[in-house]
Amino acid sequence: MRCVESLLYQVLSSIIxxxxxxxxxxxxxxxxxxxxxxxxxxxxxxxxDVVGRRSLVWxxxxxxxxxxxxxxxxxxxxxxxxxxxxxxxxxxxxxxxxTSYLGEVKKLAKDNRQYNVSVNIANRLYxxxxxxxxxxxxxNLKKFYESQLELIDFSQAEASAEKINQWISNQTNNIIKNxxxxxxxxxxxxxxxxxxxxxxxxxxxxxxxxxxSKENFTLNTGRTIELKTMHLTSHFSYxxxxxxxxxWINLPYxxxxxxxxxxxxxxxxxxxxxxEKKLLRNSKILNNIxxxxxxxxxxxxxxxxxxxxxxxxxxxxFAEHFKRLYNVKAPFxxxxxxxxxxxxxxxxxxxxxxILHKAVIDVDEAGTEAAAVTVVQxxxxxxxxxxxxxxxxxxxRPFLFYLRDINNKVPLFIGRFTGMFMSxx
Length: 425
Hints:
7-stranded mixed beta sheet, Antithrombin, Chain I, domain 2, 2 domains, Alpha-1-antitrypsin, domain 1, 10-stranded mixed beta sheet
């Protein structure tokens, strides 16, 4: 039989668009902050009209890093509301988190090069030639977020979009192309903050493509469809959580086992929406589950795993999430928004309009590719049971997945697979 090393290939981009009106504490606390951030947005996407029906993927890490950079330029009430979004009390805490994580990612990438594991995060600030950019804001982004500044003429919308798209494409190994259109650049655009995350790693325990076969997958509606399903029998970190009526497993990647794909399958006759509702009550629930699953003493459970090949593409607008979830108003209000730390000129006229996020994940025997783009537009005013016996774990019904950095408890990508898909537009 022919074994194929399955690659995890994650690509993420965040684009922050700012437009100006020219006319008129410790590590645990930081880990908890991003998990709280993740829980909040996942809870929003678990509303009755979405949960249990459409497959979904998004990147907490991308959106979080983008929000930290936006918060760097916020002042007054606007910054207070950005604190509620990021779950961090001070800019010092945000800077500490970003500096520490970016540094660790660089070291990890260097150490794991021999395993074909690569992780890269890049930030870039595009400023219009006529925009009066505050030097301290620029230096802070450069120092704490490793952002590079590039001047650009946003009045030339088509050329600007092409230039930024090329940089994004280069950073994402040509996975993300032509994200920005000329129509996306408003004549009042003054700044764009772009964040990219690129992740690539092979499975520590690869699947065998020769034994992939079509098998039944039961949708939440009860209807059955056929999906190509991968098979692997090996030892994994696994447990059955009776309290939350679900089975959990970690699929590790090569290297130092820092990155894993965690899968959660509701018990039979338990709907996915029921499991999600239980998990989203507070961040402690997921944190405890992950801590238990990541415990090396439970990594010797022999599992007969069946996992469908799947591809998910999601496009989301997070602006309403911020408003409704955190009851924030100032950053989105043309009269109240205060991003005065971004410029020594007229930046108080900036406000956030859209926070678009697009993500793609493709899982098969040969590899997994994932890509995501976040666009934040700012307009101007105009009881867990451990198993010792072999278990069968067939993901033949809707399930959850979490691509995680287990050392720092950082979720890179999370989502659900239901067999039903969101439109890419």
